[in-house]
Amino acid sequence: MEFEILRLKSNQDRRLRAGHLWVYSNEVDTDATPLKGLTPGQQVVIENARGRFLGYAYANPNSLICARLMSRDKAHPIEAPLLVHRLKIALGLRERWYAQPYYRLVFGEGDLLPGLVVDRYGEHLVAQIGTAGMEVMREEIAGALQKALKPASLLWRNDSAVRDLEGLGRYVEPAFGETPALLEVREGGCRFEVSPTEGQKTGWFFDQAFNRDLLMPHVAGQRVLDVCSYVGAWGVRAAASGAREVLCVDASRHALERVAANAEVNGVSEKVGTLQADAFDALRQLKAAGERFDVIVLDPPAFIKRRKDMKEGMLAYRRLNEAAIGLVTRDGLVVTASCSFHMDRDNLLRTVQQAARHGDRFLQALQSGQQGPDHPVHPAIPETAYLKAFTLRVLPGA
């Protein structure tokens, strides 16, 4: 099979040789190998400036990231056997770390399958494609998943905004099998029901599971506030772990309906309440009402999606943490998280510290967390290490 060639400019192969998978359009020698003639998703060979083979990739001439490397082996282009092989390697990792089949099965670049995310809900799979290259291979991906796992169903949840950057349309449709209206997730001895079509992501946030595990031994007998609760992963688990009372806050009515349903499924309805409101508004209301909580969880959406949002986003993180710290009882705990790649770990901790000092509080950082092992970090791609979480003890100022 003949492949078009993308030749890089001089010295532009360093990142790829270091393990990175992305090629930016300004790194390509477009005089020697023009991008304009390529079709979005087309497979290409990447060469360095001297014509040395670097790997097989798929290209998109309309994207800033104009190519994503998938194979460095000249004998193995991007075909079905490669997809099956990568899926089996990804499955091996999850089966090694997880006792039950509820996890992110494929995490894009972290599993050397850039542009593809697959979440596993027992015998059902929900997948998201974010790039033109993976969209072109959609049928091959479905076949590879059938071969590697033999799932009962696969649902394409291809409705994320990231597809717009690749010139892709948005849709939600079955690939094969029948996906139930509600999928089951089991985590920490609890059972949750989530919607694969109406919820965020694919219905569940698997990335925080290990961080939730770290908190649960410390909530017994405590009053817990779960801010940006979504369907109640933190809050319902806290109630099931012995918290005396839990309040889940979210702006989405649908999400809070699922909180109530999940609380009922786990037999903790009497301990779990909900408040529909914007996070900042809710914290102001609770302060005005004189409410106090022993444990507060802050798991907001990304406030910093682009580098240019940095200043405004950091202010939002500070305001959110400042408001929450003002509601914590003496010697209480705050779990604060950020899924913004541009908000690095040191900046997050520094921002929370500034929020605490504004209220004359003293913080002790007790635990530091990241995404779980089903979201493996690619050491050469910092963007894959996006989740930060801290468990903090809050004391009077000293």
SSE inventory with pairings:
Layout: E1 4-7, H1 14-17, E2 22-24, E3 43-47, E4 53-59, E5 65-71, H2 80-97, E6 102-107, E7 116-121, E8 124-129, H3 132-136, H4 138-149, E9 153-158, E10 171-176, E11 183-187, E12 190-194, H5 209-215, E13 223-227, H6 233-240, E14 245-250, H7 253-265, E15 272-276, H8 279-288, E16 293-298, H9 310-325, E17 328-338, H10 345-358, E18 361-369, E19 388-396
Parallel strand pairs: 1-3, 8-9, 13-14, 13-16, 14-15, 16-17
Antiparallel strand pairs: 2-5, 3-4, 4-5, 6-7, 7-8, 9-10, 11-12, 17-19, 18-19
What does this protein look like?
27% of the residues lie in helices and 29% in strands. The protein folds into 3 domains: 4-71, PUA domain (Archaeosine Trna-guanine Transglycosylase, Chain: A, domain 4, Roll), CATH 2.30.130; 80-176, Transcription Regulator spoIIAA, CATH 3.30.750.80; 189-396, 3-Layer(aba) Sandwich (Rossmann fold). Helix 8 packs parallel to helix 9 and helix 9 crosses helix 10 (345-358). The protein has a 7-stranded mixed β-sheet with strand order 15-14-13-16-17-19-18, with helices on both faces. A 5-stranded mixed β-sheet has the order 1-3-4-5-2. The radius of gyration is 23 Å and the shape is globular. By secondary structure, it is of the alpha/beta class. The protein has 10 helices and 19 strands. The relative contact order is 0.10. A hairpin with an 8-residue loop joins strand 6 and strand 7 (116-121).
